[in-house]
Design a protein that fits this description.
The structure is a single chain. The protein is an alpha+beta fold. It has one domain: 2-Layer Sandwich (STM4215-like), CATH 3.30.2000. The chain is built from 2 helices and 6 strands; from the N terminus they run αββαββββ.
């Protein structure tokens, strides 16, 4: 899952501190796709809610909401407009804790078992800009090789 760390890095680049910025994955789900022979095909989708907790933030949350919506529009194509929620805990007249929840974040994964020089492993490719797994997968793939 690249999106949680990508979002955190984006917010830190905007000037938030590491102490006040927490990103959590919640309600994770793996959706497996089967081949014509009813066996796992190696293609699956990871779906989750992405939660961002910002603590001790100055009371005006407008910049945060702008940054969150900008990140979502750049990193989650065709995301539903109403899938971003927030909750605010007013600490005092000057600061708040705010929790943003981005619902139904999806990442498509393609895996296949491999063997190189007698070492078994799994080759993983993620579709960075994909939002649906259909017969044609998004063309932008990055491959990572994991060995056991």
């Amino acid at each position: 899952m690249k999106k949680p760390s990508n979002l955190r890095a984006y917010l830190l680049a905007k000037g938030l501190s590491t102490e006040q910025t927490t990103v959590v994955v919640d309600r994770g789900q793996i959706i497996n796709f089967y081949s014509n022979h009813q066996r796992p095909s190696g293609k699956h989708k990871i779906k989750y809610d992405l939660q961002v907790l910002i603590t001790d933030y100055p009371a005006d949350i407008s910049p945060l909401s702008y940054w969150i919506t900008q990140w979502v529009s750049e990193n989650i194509p065709n995301h539903k407009a109403d899938n971003i929620r927030f909750e605010v805990d007013i600490l005092n007249h000057d600061s708040v804790d705010i929790l943003f929840t981005i619902s139904d974040v999806e990442e498509v994964i393609i895996a296949c078992e491999t063997e190189q020089n007698g070492v078994k492993g799994v080759s993983i490719a993620t579709c960075e800009k994909a939002h649906h797994l259909e017969p044609k997968l998004a063309p932008k793939l990055k491959e990572i090789h994991y060995e056991s």
